[in-house]
From TrEMBL:
Transmembrane intervals: 281-304
Alphabetical UniProt keywords: Membrane, Transmembrane, Transmembrane helix
Name of the protein this chain belongs to: LOW protein: ammonium transporter 1-like protein
Domain of life of the organism encoding this protein: Eukaryota
Species whose genome carries this gene: Medicago truncatula (Barrel medic)
Amino acid sequence: MKTTMASPSLSKFCSLTPTLSQHHTQSFPSTASLRFPHTTTSTNFNTIFLHKQPLSLCFALTESNSPNSTEPDPKTLLQQIADSFDLPPDYFGKFPNDLRLDLNDAAFDLSNGPVLDECGKELGETLLNLSRAWEIADTSSSRSLVAKLPLMEANLTGTAKSALGRRLVSAGKRFQSMRQYGQGETQKIAKAMIAAGRALSASSTSAVIDKQPKEKNKTLKFGALQVEITPTKANIGAAIAFVFGILTWEIAQGIQNTPESSLQYANDNALMLAKSLRGTLLVVFYGSTLLSALTSGGLVLLGIQLKSEKN
């Protein structure tokens, strides 16, 4: 009776596992020669099934360690930027006016703010020199300065890498806005700079840096001159505008209080010219007074806004 109970189970098990290795099938030479109860067959089935599981686990672990899951090397990406600046001679010098403005904006984004404090002396000076080369459209100097970036990558701290990454992404977007020009060199530069910048910003230390409060100061740019706006500077500017408004008001009042009868000239043409000049001066000084008042009020409000943002 025990044999008849074990045989159907064992036959069903053999039909369900045709793909087992020859080693396992040889352990069941004949269903008639077995004298094991049904529970023993179940135990052997579980043993064989569990023996097969580590094979799939090892395969999954091997796939997870594949080289495709590695992150891109920042040094390699910086080298791609250097390669993208292998441009024809005087490439930047031939830019039209609109692209020259974009190039100046890229220079501003690359060196804006406390670049020496954020990136260190060596990298900061390199970025400043590169920014000046872009402002004067010096292609040769740009190529030699960009070639230094891959060599500096190994010595950069986490803060410097994060700062360099943000600046490269911002400047790269300026090149991206130039669209297609020439043989598409500007788009190659933009792609390389943005990729390298994002890789540097996504480094392991950048997560700690991003948690720190970032103080962004407003900056005005007048050509090569950059003026950082602070609440103190805004209040000083408001005071200067207020004093200038008082002076222009006093001058306008002095001109207006001068009676026309006191104007004595040799002929009528000279008298008419003097009256016309008097009216022009009144318009200029009263207009200056109004602009000074508006500027003073605007700077006071700007100082209050900057102070509140800082707090």
